[in-house]
Write a structure and sequence with these properties.
The chain is an alpha+beta fold and 664 residues long. The protein is built from 11 helices and 36 strands. The chain is globular, with a radius of gyration of 25 Å. Bound molecules: copper (II) ion.
């Protein structure tokens, strides 16, 4: 049986009174020993205040069954970016009164009031749901006073539209406050994706949302494994802090994550009072006997790997980073920042309510969040019930045992490693080559820099070439620990590299002269020709850190040919030598295709891509424990200027305003 890729619901306005009445009724029944109730899946959306979200979409018809042969649509979205308070007046008496929580028009987050940055007032931002091949048009209006921003469409390769990739000063000018920018591109890459501001603090403060590109059942090789692919079955998981990082510079240095949220909501555990506030748990509704596709997104901008498990249910993984994989059964998922997994949950257990739990790691250590998987006809789950509490504790104990440390073998089980089986016949000849046309070895590590003093930054008498170190180096007394790629700190140019290359000062590019300095901050660009098979070996040297790192390449899906931890600090030269002796094994048969890769601590990962998408593509560490220091990133410049599509007409320009200085 082919999958029903989408299940149409009734008109929202007609459904709303019925569902509200139903939930009120359910609340009444709750006091009478919680008899069985029946909730339609669409109730989940309404209970999350999704009505307003839908009203803002001018192309609601874009979330539709995606069928072969149907004409692509132009799907219009309007995004207004603005600061909002969580738990504002629209929340009424929520948290506290569950009925008002259902009817509220506000973002709860974890129930603690703070300023967030929002897309259309929502957390997460308005969902973009389209069919493969649709044209997506997003008009962004920024009311982020005093801030500039840009939106990146994580998972879209922007083939033919590199100017829409949303990296400020690389692919476009930043969107200034009170201005508008139109993103327009074809949603060529089906799958589970998300969008986010490319400024880490804006992303952490709430500017992110799901981006779902469905495809026809005929084009999804795993479509016969599920019956439903519902809008409501998207899980976007994100860390949440009680301070707005954008406005609180001190918190940027030492980010404290307060909660992990599922779809922008969740309870908060107060470590001082050792109490947890009551935020109604998200409910994912299913019907016994059916199989449901769930789309799970780790939208973390911070260093937060997320472990997910559903009580009493196995998870069948069918896709990762938007790419279908050979179905694999797993007890749990582990998603690193930026990763997406599509899973099938079969509602084949006793009709009841089951916990769905996420546990954070690294920067989100000791944080967890729960939701319910509720069968149609089940007793409404009551989280304070003793039986429910004990099953929650049992699930948590199992998960912590499985993954007491990220380096545990059980944490990322064997079957998950091997899940990404790609049919060999689908690999191009280039991808099956034993040796790539070009190899790059990219080391990265955390380096300690002593505090800089005034003489390092004394440029009073230098008019043109100042030793202008960034302020975070000399605004402190203690040494600073900086994650760097190849001992370089990435510096953004004053004009977009892609759309205004002529405006980028050549002196900004990384040079030997810069590398010889005490600290080198420069525009790190690596050039590759068009249409070559390129291996990139990322080496996590591990002299200054014991952490794995997650890297994401824009513009490409790549094959993850292999990765390994050596368990001791390593140097890139050692890895290069081993590779020259053929000691680094490459899986050229069934390697997974991804856009986000984990490089293990004190180890390496080998990725392979065929450079057929010209552009200036950011290769970035997805996770950071601090906003200070620019982060680890570099540009892969594929092809020459002549290979690029023309810059769109009326594309905004920006740059230095600087007249020559005359010294007499
Ligand atoms: Cu991306």
């Amino acid at each position: 049986m082919g999958a029903r890729c989408w299940k149409p619901g009734g008109p929202l306005l007609l459904v709303l009174p019925n569902v509200t009445a139903l939930l009120l009724l359910a609340g009444t029944f709750l006091m009478l020993n919680w008899p069985a109730i029946s909730i339609r899946p669409s109730a989940v959306k309404l209970s999350r205040g999704g009505v307003r979200m839908e009203q803002l979409e001018k192309s609601t018809s874009c979330s539709r069954p995606c069928l072969d042969g149907r004409k692509a649509k132009e799907c219009y979205f309007k995004f207004v970016l603005e600061p909002r308070l969580t738990v504002n007046r629209g929340c009424s008496k929520c948290p506290g009164n569950d009925t008002e929580c259902v009817e509220r028009h506000c973002s709860l987050a974890d129930g603690v009031q703070r300023v967030m940055l929002s897309v259309n007032g929502e957390l997460p931002g308005t969902a973009v749901r389209v069919c493969e091949g649709d044209i997506v048009v997003v008009d962004v209006t920024s009311h982020l006073r005093g801030l500039e921003t840009a939106l990146h469409w994580h998972g879209q390769l922007q083939r033919g539209s590199p100017y829409m990739d949303g990296v400020p000063m690389i692919t476009q000018c930043p969107i200034q406050s009170e201005t508008r920018f139109r993103y327009k591109f074809r949603a060529s890459n089906a799958g589970t994706h998300f969008y986010h501001s490319h400024y880490v603090s804006h992303h952490a403060d709430g500017i992110f949302g799901p981006f779902i590109v469905r495809q026809s059942p005929q084009r999804d090789p795993n479509s016969d494994l599920y019956d439903y692919d519902l809008d409501e079955h998207v899980l976007i998981v994100s860390p949440w802090s009680h301070k707005a990082l954008t406005y609180d510079l001190e918190s940027q240095e030492d980010i404290e994550v307060s909660s992990v949220l599922i779809n922008g909501e969740g309870s908060h555990f107060n470590p001082e009072s050792r109490t947890r506030n009551h935020i109604p748990k998200t409910r994912f509704l299913v019907k016994w006997g059916d199989r449901y596709r769930f789309r799970v997104i780790n939208a973390a901008s911070l260093d937060c790997p997320i472990q997910l498990q559903v009580e009493g249910h196995e998870l069948t993984i069918i896709a990762t980073d938007g790419v279908p994989v050979k179905p694999t059964t797993a007890s749990h998922l582990l998603l690193f920042p930026g990763e997406r997994y599509d899973i099938v949950i079969s509602a084949n257990q006793a009709i009841s309510s089951y916990w769905l739990m996420v546990i954070g790691h690294d920067q989100c250590k000791n944080l967890h969040q729960e939701a319910f998987l509720v069968y149609d006809g089940a007793i409404l789950p009551h989280e304070f019930n003793e039986a429910t509490k004990s099953s929650l504790n049992a699930l948590m104990a199992t998960m912590m045992k499985t993954c007491s440390s990220l380096s545990d073998a059980t944490c990322r089980p064997q079957e998950m490693k091997e899940l990404h089986k790609t049919d060999v016949q689908h690999l191009s000849a280039e991808q099956q080559k034993p040796h790539a046309d070009m190899k790059l070895y990219i080391p990265f590590d955390v380096y300690v820099y002593d505090a800089f003093d005034d003489k390092d930054v004394n440029f009073r008498f230098m008019l043109e070439e100042s030793i202008n170190y960034p302020s975070y180096l000399y605004n402190r007394k203690a040494p600073i620990r900086l994650p760097q790629v190849d001992r370089l700190t990435f510096k953004y140019p004053p004009s977009p590299l892609l759309s205004q290359p002529e405006s980028v000062p050549k002196g900004m590019l990384c040079s030997d002269d810069c590398r010889r300095r005490k600290f080198c901050e420069c525009l790190h660009v690596i050039h590759t020709p068009l249409n070559v098979t390129l291996d990139i070996v990322l080496v996590n040297e591990g002299h200054g850190s014991n952490h794995s790192s997650t890297f994401h390449l824009h513009g490409y899906n790549f094959l993850v040919l292999g990765s390994e931890s050596l368990g001791r600090p390593i140097d890139v030269a050692e890895i290069q030598l081993s590779d020259s002796h053929g000691l680094l094994s490459r899986n050229l048969v069934d390697a997974p295709r991804k856009d986000t890769v984990v490089v293990p601590s004190k180890g390496y990962a080998i990725i392979r891509l065929f450079t057929d998408n010209p552009g200036s593509w950011l290769f970035e560490a997805r996770s950071t424990s601090s906003v200070i220091g620019g982060g680890m990133q570099f540009i892969v410049q594929v092809g020459e200027q002549t290979h690029l599509p023309p810059v769109p007409s009326d594309f905004p320009r920006c740059g230095d305003h600087k007249k020559p200085i005359f010294v007499f």
